[in-house]
């Protein structure tokens, strides 16, 4: 069982498992789910190479063979040397195995089939587990779960891989999966890692549908135009209008189009006047300031016209609709308004859903569960390029802005519904159970007022995923890999390895001898490069420091001279064996390239100025009982994480005269997750390379000496129990002193102190010593 949050990559993991299972000898797969919409979406992901959501590479090469992925209508159609996937709903699978039909496969036919069953939204597969059945009832009960179980048991090699975001809470179900969970990544963890939008509830006192229609359209248009204003491309916020019944959904679509057609400037004026909502006030101010207001009606009528709409309840158009619904982010997809009932609660791949509108006025308990599911699906973050946030960086896929930042509007999902305090309370509870929070009104923020006005400088760097394949020279890591190989024995088509109670020592010359790779003739390496899809262009990019003009030159200059370890019994006199050896070498070369490619890179430290204006603190986190210190950078900063931080501030206050003597001016910043101050470990070959570090406190100072731009000291407060796991931060803090950061030939003096800890209520000696050595009796 893979318990993974909606949007966290379940289908991608599934695709990877399909390839791994094929390597293990499985060719036939049965994918099943509870709904047709999930089925169509997944078929697109797995079999339509033209789709933007296709999950496999253009060419799939496994065990030196090119593999195709085939969607089959019957297991008897299975192709050799292919991944064959039979797609079915659970209901269809139940019918297939329980109702005899001409030419249809039966349970008995499965005995000779080696199958992998892939169950998506697998929480539907527990009808039997949930019920306490006696022996006779169990033998008679032929439900979905029991039929799948029966099919699975037809062959001892069959596999069942289950995927779900929501495992049922019944103890019997929990017990069933206790030892079967391979991965757990809950929606709560997904949300806490900032991969979700902020969720807001917009409650309407006016029960007219038109008010919610207009509210959703204004919200969507505001987000789109705000993104355009900040040069954020391809930002098309979509709206979902949710009805209770199919007939109502179709009628509501007609009402929506009539509302758009008759919309007037007066309707907009009244809406903004009576909305009494900070979000809509901000939208109106934006429209006014950017001069959109005179043409707002025309904008709304054009952006949300009938050609931009989809109604999922039209069965005739379902297949076409699902293609459009699962590619809403594509530039050439004009759809942005969806009318639906329950079809999209599960299995819908959407990132740019920004508004969900509940069109039913009265609600019951079932409605809260369904709406919570839908909100959970729409809450997935829609990544967009902005400033330094580009694809390849993990931050690209996470929320980027404080709630006080106007651009946080682009990171919110709005749920529009009639005001009903009981319903909202229940919905909030359902969302909390899923691991999501619901913001019922804007958080109050307190602007932070700087107490000092000199320029504060800090060290900054970035962590990036390599954006382009082979964007640097990989000669050294590949050479290290190839030289350290212990090539297994290849002989007579079988790869042999001696199995003994005493483990074979790879470094023992008894088993291995070192030879140059020129033992394998050049033409076999050429063929191996072709089989592994490594062309000259790729090699030239990956091995920049070697001057070669073709593949032959690459082999002669780089591959052939390298020495590696071969089994002492290895023969080099058979064509098939030589090719297998060459393929093994090139396979390891390519694997190393890809592993190196996956490593993030950390940029060099740069000098940046810390902007002290436009900073704020959430009121809900405000602590008022902390003494005022005139040397704190922000006088309204009243948030601390622990009593240890209070002790640190007290230590600084007791020693402030030392700092007054040393510096012309100074202040201390309590770092409340200011994103720009995060630095990444750039210690090469460290296991903590590229890990982020947010120093708790930073001392900024202006020196007496003109040669220095300023003095910046990083200080970290740590409980004794946390010291061992944060040891790398100590090393990183010490390393900061050697960083050379200049501007206009003036250097920033950087310093990192040992951790501030308490032992038996006494400040640790390392910190005290370093503090006094750094600051006492030395004016700078």
TrEMBL record:
Which key words are in the record?
Answer: Hydrolase
Instruction: Give yes or no: UniProt keyword NADP.
Output: no
The chain's coiled-coil residues are none
Under InterPro entries, the record lists: Helicase/UvrB_N, Helicase_Restrict-Modif_Enz, P-loop_NTPase
Enzyme class, top EC level, equals hydrolase
Q: Name one GO molecular function term.
A: ATP binding
Is Disulfide bond included in the keywords of this UniProt record? no
Provide the E.C. number(s) assigned to this enzyme. Answer: 3.1.21.5
Q: Where is the Helicase/UvrB N-terminal domain?
A: 1-168
> GO CC annotations?
cytosol
**Organism domain of life:** Bacteria
State the name under which the record lists this protein.
Type III restriction enzyme R protein
């Amino acid at each position: 069982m893979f318990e993974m949050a909606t949007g966290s990559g379940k289908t991608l993991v599934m695709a990877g498992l399909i390839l791994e299972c094929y390597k293990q000898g499985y060719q036939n797969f049965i994918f099943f789910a509870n709904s047709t919409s999930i089925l169509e979406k997944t078929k697109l992901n797995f079999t339509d190479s033209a789709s933007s959501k296709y999950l496999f590479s253009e060419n799939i090469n496994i065990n030196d063979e090119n593999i195709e992925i085939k969607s089959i209508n019957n297991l008897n159609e299975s192709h050799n040397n292919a991944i064959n996937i039979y797609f079915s709903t659970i209901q269809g699978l139940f019918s297939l195995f329980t109702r005899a039909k001409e030419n249809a496969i039966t349970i008995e036919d499965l005995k000779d089939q080696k199958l992998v069953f892939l169950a998506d939204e697998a929480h539907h597969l527990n009808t039997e587990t949930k019920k306490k059945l006696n022996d006779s009832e169990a033998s008679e009960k032929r439900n979905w779960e029991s039929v799948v179980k029966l099919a699975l048991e037809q062959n001892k090699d069959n596999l069942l891989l289950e995927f779900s975001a929501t495992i049922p809470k019944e103890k019997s179900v929990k017990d069933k999966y206790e030892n079967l969970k391979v991965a757990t990544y809950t929606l709560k963890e997904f949300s806490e890692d900032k991969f979700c939008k902020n969720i807001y509830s917009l409650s309407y006192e006016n029960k007219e549908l038109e008010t919610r229609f207009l509210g959703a359209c204004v919200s969507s248009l505001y987000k789109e135009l705000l993104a355009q204003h900040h040069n954020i491309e391809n930002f098309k916020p979509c709206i979902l209008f949710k009805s209770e019944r199919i007939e109502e959904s179709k009628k509501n679509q007609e009402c929506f189009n009539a509302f758009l057609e008759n919309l007037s400037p007066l309707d907009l004026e009244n809406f903004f006047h009576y909305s009494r909502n900070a979000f809509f006030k901000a939208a109106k101010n934006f429209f006014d300031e950017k001069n959109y207001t005179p043409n707002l009606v025309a904008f709304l009528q054009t952006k949300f016209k009938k050609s931009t709409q989809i109604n999922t309840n039209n069965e005739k158009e379902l297949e076409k609709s699902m293609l459009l619904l699962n590619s809403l982010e594509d530039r050439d997809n004009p759809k942005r308004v969806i009318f639906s009932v329950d079809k999209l609660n599960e299995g819908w791949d959407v990132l740019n859903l920004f508004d969900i509108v509940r069109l039913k006025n009265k609600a019951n308990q079932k409605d809260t569960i369904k709406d919570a599911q839908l909100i959970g699906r729409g809450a997935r973050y829609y990544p967009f390029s902005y400033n330094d946030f580009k694809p390849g960086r993990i931050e690209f896929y996470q929320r980027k802005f404080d709630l006080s930042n106007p651009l946080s509007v682009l990171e919110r999902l709005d749920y529009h519904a009639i005001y009903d305090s009981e319903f909202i309370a229940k919905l909030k509870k359902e969302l909390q159970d899923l691991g999501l929070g619901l913001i019922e009104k804007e958080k109050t923020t307190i602007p932070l007022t700087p107490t000092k006005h000199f320029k504060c400088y800090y060290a900054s760097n970035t962590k990036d995923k390599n954006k382009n394949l082979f964007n640097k020279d990989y000669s050294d890591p590949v050479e290290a890999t190839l030289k350290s190989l212990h090539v297994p024995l290849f002989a007579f088509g079988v790869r042999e390895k001696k199995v003994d109670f005493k483990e074979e020592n790879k470094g023992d010359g008894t088993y291995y001898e070192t030879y140059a790779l020129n033992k394998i003739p050049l033409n076999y390496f050429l063929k191996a490069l072709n089989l592994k899809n490594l062309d000259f262009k790729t090699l030239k990019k990956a091995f920049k420091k070697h001057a070669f003009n073709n593949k032959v030159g690459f082999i002669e200059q780089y591959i052939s001279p390298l020495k590696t370890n071969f089994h002492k019994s290895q023969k080099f006199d058979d064509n098939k064996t030589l090719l297998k050896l060459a393929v093994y070498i090139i396979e390891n070369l390519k694997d190393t390239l890809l592993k190196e490619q996956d490593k993030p890179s950390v940029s060099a430290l740069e000098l940046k100025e810390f902007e002290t204006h436009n900073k704020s603190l959430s009121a809900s986190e405000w602590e008022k009982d902390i003494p005022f210190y005139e040397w704190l950078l922000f006088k309204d900063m009243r948030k601390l994480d622990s009593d240890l931080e209070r002790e640190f501030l007290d230590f600084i206050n007791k020693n402030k005269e030392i700092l007054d003597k040393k510096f012309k001016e100074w202040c201390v910043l309590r770092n409340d997750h200011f994103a720009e101050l995060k630095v990444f470990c750039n210690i090469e070959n460290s296991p903590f390379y590229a890990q982020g570090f947010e120093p708790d406190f930073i001392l900024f100072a202006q020196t007496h000496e003109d040669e220095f731009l300023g003095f910046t000291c990083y200080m970290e407060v740590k409980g004794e129990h946390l010291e061992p796991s944060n040891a790398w931060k100590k090393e990183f803090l010490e390393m900061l002193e050697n960083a050379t950061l200049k501007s206009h030939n003036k250097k920033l003096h950087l310093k990192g102190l040992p951790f501030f800890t308490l032992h038996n209520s006494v400040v640790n000696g390392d910190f005290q010593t370093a503090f006094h050595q750094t600051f006492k009796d030395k004016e700078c």
